[in-house]
Backbone:
DNA sequence: CGCCCCGTTGAGGAGAGTCAATGGCTGTGG
DNA sequence: CCACAGCCATTGACTCTCCTCAACGGGGCG
C-alpha cells in the first residue's frame, strides 16, 4: 500500500487514521510472473486491484492480432474501480515484470470509502488522474509525431514514478520492449527503435539495460510538448472534504 | 433531462422518484451558438453540465495549432463530473451546433447522489461508459486504418444516439465537418474526405446534408471491427443497489 | 450577386510500415 | 564450459498510407 498512499498523498492530505483504514481492508496478495494474464476480457469484476510492485499493461486485441496498449500500470496504481459496480472487463491486463498485487473485495472497499470522506476524495482524484492519462494518450497518438510520442511517454512515465514516490534521479526503469512501446503509441517496433536511437544520438536521453536516463530534460520536454502542469493537478480544497467551508460556485 | 434519463435507464432501472429528484435539482439553462466556447482550459469547475440539445466537442490544442478532439458530446451526455472535486479543466469544450445545457451546482448534485443509491449507481455507470469510450478512442486511433476509424466512429456515434433515445432508422445526423472528424481520428480533412467518398462508392454508407445513412450495417461493422457488445454493457445487479442481495465475490 | 465555408479531387512528398538480415544477450542442456 | 536456441534491438532497402499543397466548385447567406 505504500506506493498507493504516496500517490494519494500527492493530491489529498491523509492522516494516519486513513492509511490505517486502507491497510486494514481485507485482502489477499497475488504474485505473477512476467507475461501472466491478470484480467481477461469478459471476466466479472468484483474486486479492486492495487499494484504493489511491478508493471502491467492494459490492452485490447483486434481480430487480426493487432494490439493496442491503452495504458501502463505502475506500482501504486489501482485499477478496475469499475468493479465497484460489477461490470465485466472489456480488455486484458498482463504483467510485464514480476508483479504483486493486493486484491480487495469491492464491497469492503466501498464501505470504507463510505466511512471516510477524505479517502473517497483521494480515490476520486485517482480516478480523475486516470482519465486525464487516457485523454493525454489520445492526444499523443492522435496528433503527435513518433518522436514526440516517445519523448512524451518517457516524461509521463517518469513523472508517474515520481508521484508514486520514486527517487528523482532523472532515470526511468522502463521494463517495456520496443514492441510494447510501439503498441502503446500506435507505431511499429522498428520505428520505435529507430526513433529512440535518434533521441539517443541527439543526446536527449541515454539508455542501458532497460533504463532510460533523461539527459536533456528541457529539450526533451520541448520536443514532446510536455506540459509542466500535467498530472500536477492543483491541490485544491475538496467538495467532499468536511473541512472545506469556502466552496463558492462562481 | 429527458435524454439523460434515457441513457441512465439503459443501464439502471430508475423510478419516477429518482427522475423527479434529478429534475428538481437547482439549475440554470444556458444556450450557445455553434462554435461557442463552453469550457476553457484553466477554468475552475464547480458545476456539472448536462447536454440537453446539440453537439459539442471536447478537445486539446497543441502549441502549433494542432487540435485533438478527445470526444464528442451528444444530447444526454453529462460532463465534468470531475467538478465534483473542483478541479480545473485541462481541455476546451466548444459547441458545434446550437447547444442548450443544463448547469447544476456540483454540490447540490452530490447531495442528491448521496441520497439516492440508484442515482449514484446510474451516474457511476455513466462514468464507466465515458471511460470505455475513451479507451475505444485510443484503440481506434492507435491501431486502426483511416477506413476502419471512420467506419467505427460512425457506428459508435449511431449507437450512442440510440442509447440516448434516438430513432433506430439507420441514419445519423452528424453535424461535424471533415475537419472535426479528422481532428477526432488523428487524420487530415483531405484524407477523411477521400475515405468517406470511398465508403460511399462501396455502398456502405450514403451521405446527404450532414446526414449519414448506414446502408450495409453488417459490412460496415466488419470493416470497422465494431463489436456488438460495445456500450451494451450488460445490465447487472449493482453493488450500490440496496436491492442487491446476491453479490458474491468469487 | 458574390463571398465564404466546406467538400472534393489531383499531384507529389514524407513519415511510418514491411520484410529481412544481423548480432548481442541470456538461459539451458549436453 | 561451450553450443545452441530464442528473444530482442538494430539497421537497411523498399513500400504504402496518409499528408501537403493547391485548385475547383457547390451551397448558404448577407
Residues:
Amino acid at each position: 500500500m505504500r506506493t498507493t498512499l504516496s500517490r494519494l498523498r500527492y493530491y489529498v492530505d491523509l492522516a494516519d487514521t486513513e492509511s490505517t483504514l486502507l491497510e486494514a481492508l481485507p485482502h489477499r496478495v497475488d504474485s505473477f510472473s512476467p507475461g501472466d494474464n491478470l484480467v481477461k476480457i469478459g471476466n466479472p469484476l468484483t474486486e479492486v486491484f492495487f499494484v504493489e510492485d511491478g508493471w502491467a499493461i492494459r490492452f485490447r486485441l483486434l481480430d487480426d492480432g493487432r494490439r493496442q496498449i491503452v495504458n501502463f500500470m505502475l506500482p501504486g496504481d489501482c485499477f478496475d474501480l469499475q468493479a465497484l459496480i460489477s461490470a465485466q472487463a472489456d480488455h486484458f491486463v498482463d504483467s510485464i515484470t514480476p508483479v504483486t498485487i493486493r486484491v480487495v473485495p469491492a464491497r469492503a472497499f466501498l464501505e470504507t470509502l463510505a466511512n471516510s470522506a477524505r479517502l473517497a476524495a483521494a480515490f476520486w482524484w485517482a480516478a480523475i488522474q486516470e482519465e486525464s492519462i487516457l485523454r493525454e494518450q489520445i492526444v499523443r497518438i492522435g496528433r503527435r509525431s513518433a518522436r514526440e510520442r516517445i519523448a512524451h511517454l518517457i516524461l509521463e512515465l517518469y513523472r508517474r514514478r515520481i508521484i508514486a514516490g520514486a527517487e528523482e534521479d532523472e532515470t526511468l526503469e522502463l521494463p517495456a520492449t520496443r514492441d510494447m512501446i510501439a503498441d502503446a503509441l500506435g507505431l511499429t517496433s522498428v520505428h520505435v527503435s529507430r526513433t529512440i536511437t535518434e533521441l539517443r544520438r541527439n543526446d536527449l536521453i541515454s539508455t542501458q539495460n532497460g533504463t532510460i536516463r533523461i539527459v536533456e530534460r528541457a529539450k526533451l520536454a520541448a520536443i514532446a510538448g510536455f506540459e509542466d502542469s500535467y498530472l500536477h493537478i492543483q491541490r485544491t480544497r475538496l467538495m467532499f472534504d468536511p473541512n472545506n467551508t469556502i466552496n463558492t460556485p462562481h
Notes: Residues 237-250 of chain A have pLDDT under 50 and may be disordered. Helices of chain A lie at 2-11, 16-23, 106-115, 117-143, 146-163, 178-185, 189-201, 217-224.
